[in-house]
Amino acid sequence: MDIAMVLTRKYPGALWSCVNEDYAQLDWQDETPKPSKKQLEALWPEVQYEVAYEQVEQARANAYRETSDALFFEYQRGDATEAEWLAAVQAVKDAHPYPEQV
């Protein structure tokens, strides 16, 4: 578990410091109650999913820019077919599937 990642994503704005991802060395400096190690562990799969999802979104955005976006404009000008453009979009989706939701 990445304690810093969980705290950053699930407790935005909270004040804390942690040494070596060691819960025993988590210094909670916030006014809100310090989350337990068990609470952080329970949030970890959700954080992992969010990170994986964001990575897929970024990969898809990059791939769309490199392939299907240009083809879309060609389709609008009549230089490519709608089927070609849609196939390019589907190829990006197939190459970058979303992670299984937790």
Question: Any overview of this molecule?
Answer:
The protein has 102 residues and is mostly helical. The protein is 61% helix and 6% strand. It has a two-stranded antiparallel ribbon with strand order 1-2. The longest helix has 30 residues. It starts with a helix and ends in a 7-residue tail after the last helix.
Write the layout of secondary structure elements.
Blueprint: H1 3-10, E1 16-18, E2 26-28, H2 37-66, H3 68-77, H4 82-95
Antiparallel strand pairs: 1-2
Helix pairs in contact: 1-2, 3-4
Instruction: Give me the Rg, rounded.
Output: 21 Å
Question: If strands are numbered along the chain, what order do they take across the biggest sheet?
Answer: 1-2
Beta-strand segment tally: 2
Distance between the termini: 16 Å
- Poorly predicted runs of 5 or more residues: none
Percent in strands: 5-15%
Q: SSE order, as H and E?
A: HEEHHH
How many distinct helices?
4
Keywords:
single chain, 102 residues, mainly alpha, two-stranded antiparallel ribbon, 4 helices, 6% strand, elongated
Give a nutshell description of this structure.
Helices cover 61% and strands 6% of the residues. It has 102 residues and is mainly alpha-helical.
